[in-house]
Amino acid sequence: MRFLFLLLLPLVALAQDDDYCFSQDTSRPQTRQFSSKTAYQIVKGSDIERQYLVPNCEPKKMWIFHRHGTRLPKKSMINKASRLAELRDLIVKNYKVLKTKPDKDPLCQTDLIALQMWKWNSSITGDMEEYLTAQGYDDLRGTAKLYQRYYPNVLPKEYNDTYYQFRHTDTQRTTESFKAFAEGLFGTVNSAHPVDIPKQDLLLRPYDYCQSYKDLNYKGEGSEFEKYHQSTVWKNNLVDISTRLGFQYTLEEEDIKLMYDICRYEQAWQVDRNSVWCGAFLPEQVTVFEYAEDLKYYYGSGYGFEEIERLNCRLVQDLLTHLSNPVSPHVVAHFGHSTGLLTLITALGIKKDGVKLRADNYLDLASRRWKSSLIDPFASNFVAVKYDCPQELDREKVVFFLNQDAVQLDWCNVGLCKWSDVLAKYKTISDADCGEYFCRSGATSSLASGVSMLATSLVALLVYLMH
Ligand SMILES: *[C@@H]1O[C@H](CO)[C@@H](O)[C@H](O)[C@H]1NC(C)=O
Ligand SMILES: *[C@@H]1O[C@H](CO)[C@@H](O)[C@H](O)[C@H]1NC(C)=O
């Protein structure tokens, strides 16, 4: 008997070790796969130390597009806090009362106990929807400090509005993100201010003013996103997750999505802690979700439709104009949103795959370039640094950084691009009349009326001046 016990002991230990434990996993690969809800600190580049220095060249100017930092969810999700508490109780009941814990891949004991103790942070209420969080503020203050450390001459600690030009969209989270960034550069007490936000923000939100863009079918019937949702990969994933949580039926997709979302948010709100809800998913299950998100963004804000490459005509012109011109502003920084960042990356031909993402090539594209988690986490940022290289024939050079990692383009030399090549590459856009080019259907009616109102007032002004 005793002998048998000793014989079985290692087996028991082995079985316990085998249960995946999110709270004890030191690599936590799934936290790098949360698409646009990924924490910046987890996926940001770690090589800038080697990439920023260009021998015999001096950094001169900088152009930045920065997504806001980690935010709170929409009201619709905040209102589902009580459903999360119900799901928590159901899972615990499955394991402890109904004894429907699965034989294969159950939740480990630590993850289950952590889940049992989970509570919604009751100070997060519906009126704070999409607000920047404390971590979100730190994200932007952090990137500002980091870039200033590597480029102290381009980003001096003294602010003036000739040298620096800041602009953000009309939301709490981008306003606060701008303030955080300014605090990182100039300290807590500073006089940094943004330029006025126009009524029609065609520079930072062109996608709001283009009907043919809004009409693109990126996730509706017949879309690749929808097809993926009908696939066996997707359906089995929902079954596996439900079984793992002890359910003897398949949970509603809405419930699974809710648990997945709270996991992603909580992980981003407190990067150094584990979100209890992330324990509900195995890494490979998160990978299945990630591809759905990537499909959604590929067709909604990426290379899926050709017209998306045109949307940011004005923003690309803004980049080219400012960096071509030797005079101030020397630093231009825009604070916007996920769609803005992704469509900008797309306009520039960055992170483009040779093959289109589809529902059925999920496995072939496991190492695709288009990974929204790495391109567009919270606080994602695109930074172009212009260099002057007096010893070279082509004096003007540029390095593009995405999330503080030098962008590799095949027409550049390990991240270092000739400015003349940049101008040639984006000539179509720089020559375009953006008013016509940016949107196939032309601007939406609200814009058209805005323009005609502007025209009317200009005429009025002229008439007034002539008298
Ligand atoms: C709860 O949320 C508020 C508002 O976002 C935040 O200030 C606070 O730190 C959070 N508390 C905990 C324990 O996470
Ligand atoms: C603004 O700041 C820049 C960089 O520190 C400096 O070179 C320039 O002289 C300043 N301009 C004004 C008007 O203060």
Automatic annotation (TrEMBL):
One of its GO terms (molecular function) is inositol hexakisphosphate 3-phosphatase activity. It catalyses: (2R)-2,3-bisphosphoglycerate + H2O = (2R)-2-phosphoglycerate + phosphate; 1D-myo-inositol 1,2,5,6-tetrakisphosphate + H2O = 1D-myo-inositol 1,2,6-trisphosphate + phosphate; 1D-myo-inositol 1,2,4,5,6-pentakisphosphate + H2O = 1D-myo-inositol 1,2,5,6-tetrakisphosphate + phosphate; 1D-myo-inositol hexakisphosphate + H2O = 1D-myo-inositol 1,2,4,5,6-pentakisphosphate + phosphate. Keywords: Cell membrane, Disulfide bond, Glycoprotein, Hydrolase, Membrane, Signal, Transmembrane, Transmembrane helix. SUPFAM superfamilies: Phosphoglycerate mutase-like. It is found in: Cell membrane. Its EC number is 3.1.3.62, 3.1.3.80. Its main location: membrane. GO terms for biological process: open tracheal system development; positive regulation of filopodium assembly. It holds the Pfam family His_Phos_2. The chain crosses the membrane at residues 447-466. One of its GO terms (cellular component) is external side of plasma membrane. CDD domains: HP_HAP_like. InterPro entries: His_Pase_clade-2, His_PPase_superfam, Histidine_acid_Pase_euk. It comes from the Eukaryota. Residues 1-15 form the signal peptide. Disulfide bonds join 57-389, 263-278, 412-417. It is an enzyme of class 3 (hydrolase). Belongs to the histidine acid phosphatase family. MINPP1 subfamily. PANTHER family: MULTIPLE INOSITOL POLYPHOSPHATE PHOSPHATASE 1, MULTIPLE INOSITOL POLYPHOSPHATE PHOSPHATASE-RELATED. This is Multiple inositol polyphosphate phosphatase 1. It comes from Drosophila ananassae (Fruit fly). The gene is Dana\GF10522.
